[in-house]
Design goal:
This protein is of the alpha+beta class. It is built from 29 helices and 14 strands. Among the domains are: about 15-320, no CATH class; about 345-530, no CATH class. It starts with a helix and ends with a helix.
Length: about 850
Amino acid sequence: MTTEGDVAPVARDAGGALRERLLAVAGPVAGLGLVLVAAAMLRHEFRIHDLADVREHLRALPPTRLALAMVLTACGYLALTGYDVLALRYVGRQLPYPRVALASFVAYVFSHNVGLSIFGGSAVRFRMLSGWGMRSEDVTRVIVFTSLTFWTGFLALGGVLHTFDPIRLAIPGLPLADSRALGLVLIGAILAYAVLVLRRRTPFSLHGIRIPAPSPGLAAAQVTVSSVDWLLAASVFYVLLPETSEAGFVTVLSAFLVAQVIGLVSHVPGGLGVFETTMVLLLKPWLAGDEVLATAVAYRVVYYLLPFVLALALLAGYELRRHRALLQGTGARVQDLLTAIVPRFFAVTIFLSGVVLLVSGATPELPERLHWLRRAVPLPLLEVSKLAGSLAGVGLLFLSHALRQRLDAGWVGTLVLLGAGAILSLAKGLDWEEASVLTGMALLLWPCRRYFHRRSSLLDQPLSAGWWMAALVAMSGTVATLELAFRHVEYSHELWWQFAHSAEAPRALRATFTAALALAALGSLRLLRPARRVPAPPSPADLDRAQAIVASSPTVGGYLALLGDKELLFGDTGRAFLMYGVRGRTWVAMGDPVGDPAEGQELAWRFLELADHHGGRAAFYEVSEENLPLYLDLGLDLRKIGEEGRVPLATFSLEGRARKGLRASRNRLLRDGYAFELVAPPAVPAILDRLESLSNDWLVGKRTREKRFSLGRFDRDYLCRLPVAIVRQQDEIVAFANIWSSEAKGELSIDLMRYGSEAPPGVMDFLFTELMLWGQREGHHHFSLGMAPLAGLEGHRLAPTWHRVGALLFRHGEHFYNFQGLRAFKDKFDPEWAPRYLASPGALSAPLVLARIASLVSGGLVGLVGR
């Protein structure tokens, strides 16, 4: 039976979900549109050129120019380390330069290859810098600063060049004759940045983190370092141009700036195709299209692919050079870094290997090799090899995503397809170059088995919009390559049925069509897969398992599972669990996974897949700073939502002037005959009636309702599972709280705290103080005061929109109903504050996720509105 209060949230969620889906696909669709436009323009160019011309230009590249390009590439990556050096100066931190250089090089190599976006290496940079002792807020400031530095050089160089030496725009249909208007816009932007630096005094706020404007000197250094980086990157492209080129360096630099940024905003991985097309169009007055395209191919190899391989080699060598005595220190951090990087590296390279097989299937074989095959290979085997090679390419595209998610089945399947692809490359055209690349990738992947440890079905893995975007780009590029390679062959229906050693076009047509059909079938299979049964609420046996896991854990927040209002997801070995709730399409995990850390990471991935399987969005609420790299690996965005107060019990004392109020309150209640007492779980049923009376009295006095999900509520079964602390005067109980503690005596805390209207003033102070003193005597490490929601976040007009919306929603969905008063109450105990975060799919979905969490906490729309 559905109540009216249940219908409204679902209806509203449907509308929000539709908007979110439209916004989520807008970027990929726009990027695909740019790719199609680029393909159409390249097709127009290659009506007068041939792919053979591109190969000839590449063969004609002098070794001296290639060596010079490599030297300039090394200088360019050295300049990129300046971004991070300035960023560390900006946040007031110092690290040894070798560490800075390593983090910078690895981060930017991944950014360049996965996408031209300067943000692409954020996860790598975050993992390395936080592993070297930097706080997450400082790492975020570093990432923002380096991103801003990237744009300052573009704005300064581009503005000057396009204003004072504009390039002619020989693009049909474009109303502008040159790029001077673009230059004026860029100059205006860099001047606006200068004014901001000089006049801005109030820091900006990004997800609750304060981002101050840099000093004028630091801003000038940003422009200088970024300009040097852009000049060096453009110089690599320039020296790879044919010696007969009539384009000067300034012209190439102007075109390079525009092409790189268009590739960046296209959302296409690496700007592939978009960058090349833009360079062809902008340099058309000086260079032929095949010359520019050949230069672009050489540029990608020198500036992108070679550093990509080198980055992984440097990290592996760094780990091998560590002494055994350091394996628990720096070496362990390098191993942790490799765990994050290796799956990403192979996800990209295996995807590219699949593209190689697809393109190979769409192009003709070399005549001299085909002549030899005609005598040695039967025609049926040749036909099947061409077809199977393209299918193996599609398989590698799919398995690249499985490797990114660390699946063991993905590792096995990739090795099989790499081996098969190498054999098929030889059988269909003696393509020993492709076979060597595929074999080399298999040899690299073979010893990396331990990085792919997750056991899960390949068909159950969520395929992101980004993956589909990249796959569609790869398939579109393959089709375009087919058309270019055989543009002199007139299409007819008879082509499909022509089988001969010399029938190259029909064979490539069938192979490409089959590959496209396989990709479409994969998409249909994902859409039509049967829905999995939604797990039922936990049974008493499940709650017993969860309680045992929490009792042996260093933190005690997992006791929220005992409320029974959240579904539980257990690890394969039963050493960890994850608790979550579902509201609409939003699947919210409460806190970090509980228990064994390794099994907890696997549970986080499984939870993400489970939500995706049901068409939902996964989020993690109130997660700790220690596990932020895990959520970045999951592809989630992080937003600070508050701070948890933790009181070190070893140093806790009522002595001193600062504790005068607590000391006076405790002494007064003791004089009036009030006493603190612990009640063990077996004795709790005897006092439940009195506790329930106090709880009801408290709810009436606070004019509120019971909450749930992230907060305790009065539930008899729940209270009977844990010790209860009470405050009594003679035989009358006036206040109580249930106690969370662990067997390891790491953390001590409470959840449900209630008192009646007859309780004396200061009873909360008394209860907390006595619990801390008791925990100190029992040897507990610290006392958790719980989270202060929205603490440490900006509330002024410049705060993010989701931040202000979240503050409004949570005003009706949290524990103490008075955020400022809550923080002030906890500050009396002088706690150490640790940030807590929301990990959710993206900025656009954050308000809806916050609304769903507030609904879970309040028990639905009625509870949210009625408190």
